[in-house]
Inverse folding.
């Protein structure tokens, strides 16, 4: 917390841009961001969600290569902007933090690998259910009528984490609603009446 500069961003702001050559990282202090990538045809896929306490942009800071994804704010965000030089100097002084950073990157790689395995072995609705169950369990909150994710994401964005195209997203959510494990978007949020039932549907 003693390195970097406090920055504030409004909603729907691109704070890191895919293919850019800057190398700073952002330590999120408050708010939520989404990490997304765009292919050659212009299609955009959501890769991940990051919240307060998470670090974003670390890959470019470590390897000095162009950004691999875009980071967009979901509402107001407060963060610490840390230059690559500041980060590397800190990691040289604190080997214990370097080990923690490796562990964080490893966890993110495991998440990505799990999505690839899901693509091979689960139908669309189950893949969305698996993503939703993990996101809600990690970031959601329990309310009177069930669990809500609390992050403004569209069905297309949620389905894209599971590796599916927009045209498949509507059918996948329709199947989840018919199974009674997900209620449709309420103000761009998702209501899960029974998290245990959703996990069972997902095959966990």
């Amino acid at each position: 917390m003693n390195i970097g500069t406090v920055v504030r961003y409004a909603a729907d702001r691109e704070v890191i841009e895919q293919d850019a050559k800057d190398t700073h990282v952002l330590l999120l202090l408050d708010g939520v961001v989404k990490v997304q990538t765009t292919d050659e045809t212009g299609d955009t896929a959501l890769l991940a969600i990051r919240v307060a306490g998470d670090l974003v942009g670390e890959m470019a800071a470590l390897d000095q290569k162009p950004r691999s994804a875009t980071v967009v704010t979901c509402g107001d965000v407060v963060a610490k902007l840390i230059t690559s030089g500041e980060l590397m100097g800190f990691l040289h002084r604190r080997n214990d933090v370097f080990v923690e950073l490796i562990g964080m990157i490893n966890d993110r790689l495991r998440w990505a690998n799990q999505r690839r395995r899901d693509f091979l072995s689960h139908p669309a609705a189950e893949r969305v259910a698996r993503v939703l169950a993990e996101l809600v369990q990690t970031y959601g909150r329990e309310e009177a009528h069930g669990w809500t994710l609390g992050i403004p994401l569209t069905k297309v964005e949620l389905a894209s984490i599971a590796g599916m195209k927009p045209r498949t997203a509507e059918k996948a959510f329709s199947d989840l609603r018919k199974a009674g494990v997900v209620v449709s978007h309420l103000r761009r949020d998702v209501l899960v009446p029974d998290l245990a039932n959703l996990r069972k549907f997902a095959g966990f």
Summary: Strands lie at 5-9, 14-16, 25-38, 44-51, 55-56, 70-82, 141-143, 146-148, 191-192. The first helix runs from residue 58 to 63. The mean pLDDT is 91.
